Amino acid sequence: MTEKTHLRKCTVFPFHPWDLADRKKHGVMLWVPQTIEELVKEAAEHLDFPGGSCVLSEDAGKIIDADMISDGQKLYLINQTQ
Known about the structure:
Elements: E1 9-13, E2 28-31, H1 36-47, E3 54-56, E4 73-78
Parallel strand pairs: 1-4
Antiparallel strand pairs: 1-2, 3-4
């Protein structure tokens, strides 16, 4: 990111939002990049979760565009087959 005029951050967790048993796993706070693909890649690297392929909102909605992410939003990185 070269321009820091309107940065947004998010916290990404490595589990499905409805998986209560995984709630003890830590997440990672990241700046929201330009694309979802960049977010998935960066989150997967930081969380050591190479199978991560999809980002969900707290209500399990699939995020398809980085512009849909609100500042401070909690997101969940999952393997799309979950």
